Amino acid sequence: MPLALGFSDLFDHLGTDDLRYSDTAKTLSGSEIAIEGFLSHAHGPRASTLLVDQPGLCPDCSPVPAPAISLLGALPAPQEGEARPVRVVGRLDYGFRIDDGVASFIRIENAVVAPLEVEA
């Protein structure tokens, strides 16, 4: 059973210029986790899929630092422009790394992405 986390577990000072990775992110690296958020896609020649905490948030365009988690090997392949919330399950990995030319500090490996049902 994956450990259910929120963005506030992995990031300190959400919504401020002082945004940073939490000690929990480092401690839980290697753990199977589940987290809810929204899909976003980074800019650049090798666009990567990201999980963010708000619908429509683009970490590259945000006026303040935005929490974003890279989704490596996400299944099924997430669709661009999704504004619906999703649940992602996979292995949390923390630390600087470059995969296929894309740098990241925090990732969910072998991410399984499932849409969340939104109540009307």
Residues in helix, %: under 10%
Taking all residues together, what is the mean pLDDT? 88
Shape: globular
Strand content: over 45%
Radius of gyration: 13 Å
Main beta sheet: 5 strands, mixed, barrel
Q: How far do the termini sit from each other?
A: 29 Å
Counting helices, strands and paired strands, the structural category is mainly beta
Low-confidence spans: none
Physical arrangement of strands within the biggest beta sheet: 4-5-6-8-7
Count of DSSP-assigned helices: 2
Q: How many strand elements?
A: 8
Order of helices and strands: EHEEHEEEEE
Describe the overall structure.
This protein has 120 residues and is mostly beta strands. Helices cover 8% and strands 45% of the residues.
Question: Quick gist of this model?
Answer:
The protein is mainly beta.
Indicate the topology.
Elements: E1 3-5, H1 7-10, E2 11-12, E3 20-21, H2 23-27, E4 32-41, E5 49-52, E6 68-72, E7 86-99, E8 102-115
Parallel strand pairs: 1-4, 6-8
Antiparallel strand pairs: 2-3, 4-5, 4-7, 5-6, 7-8
Provide keyphrases for this structure:
two-stranded antiparallel sheet, 45% strand, single chain, mainly beta, 120 residues, globular
